[in-house]
Amino acid sequence: MKMKVGEVLLLFGFTGVATTMMLAFLWAPSVSINAFEEPAAQRIFYWHVPSAWAAFIAFGALFVGSAGWMFKRSELMWRIHIAGSEAGLATGLMTVWSGCVWGAAEWGTPWDWSDVRLNTFGLLTLLAIYLVLGRSSQPDGVETRDTFAAFGLYGFILVPFTYVATRIWSIRHPGPVIGTNDGGSLNADMGLILLIGTLSFTLLIFGHMLTSMRITAFEQRIEALQIQLDGGK
Amino acid sequence: MEGMTYLAVAYFGMIIAVGLWTYTVVQRSRHLSERIGALEAAVKAASREVAED
């Protein structure tokens, strides 16, 4: 069977993610035992940061799709909204899960309710859960789409808020390690694995969103064909 | 060593979960594509019957 663009991206993305995991486990340099309670757990960073990056891409797509549906009533934009919410849910859970694994090892607790970034990112993931479950339990229609698109639009405010949270409030979540004024705290090997991970997660999430958009288009086509077959009722 | 074992289990769990998610999405896409083919054939057959009548 001929592979579609989305499937090719998924294949390369997944291979890259698996390679990143292997490199993180076997090749990444160890961190100082003085800087961390559990230095081994720091390797989760090579999963956590790229998945958070992919989540921001997905929530960006959710915002674009929501706005496009609200202002243009475009079917394509509605498909982007659906793809963004599903991809946002998956990558959001990946980020939260990997963060909890690291938090349990490093802090002694998987979640800190006083940390702003944890809570805003948790809210974003909850928003994605609401959108995905809500859409599957509600009949499709303009009103339903408007409601979910409004949540997608307003929920996006949490993205820049989450991004700047550790720069404004240094509570428990570590601050940025790249893009800082002092050049960052990553050495070349760490940076390379992080780059491979980020590119791989980007390919994976675009592959997922393209395939998800295709699935939604198929579902709509099947519904139309079924109506035609039933005599146009 | 205990920390690395926990990490290996966490990594393994995550990669299996992503693999399953990816596999499910691709399979669903292919399944729906086949269903569309079958439905289109049924619609064509139905319209031929109507034309013959």
What does this entry show, briefly?
Helix content of chain A is 73%, strand content 0%. In chain B, 96% of the residues lie in helices and 0% in strands. Chain B is rod-shaped.
Characterization of this structure:
- The complex is a heterodimer of chains A (233) and B (53).
- Chain A has 233 residues and is mainly α.
- In chain A, 73% of the residues lie in helices and 0% in strands.
- Chain A is built from seven helices and no strands.
- Chain A has helices spanning 5-26, 45-72, 75-106, 116-137, 142-155, 158-168, 188-229.
- The two termini of chain A are 35 Å apart.
- The model of chain A has no long low-confidence stretch (mean pLDDT 86).
- Chain B is rod-shaped, with a radius of gyration of 23 Å.
- Chain B has 53 residues and is mainly alpha-helical.
- Helix content of chain B is 96%, strand content 0%.
- Chain B has one helix at residues 2-52.
- The longest helix of chain B is centred in the middle third of the chain and has 51 residues, at 2-52.
- The interface between A and B is medium-sized, with 39 and 28 residues.
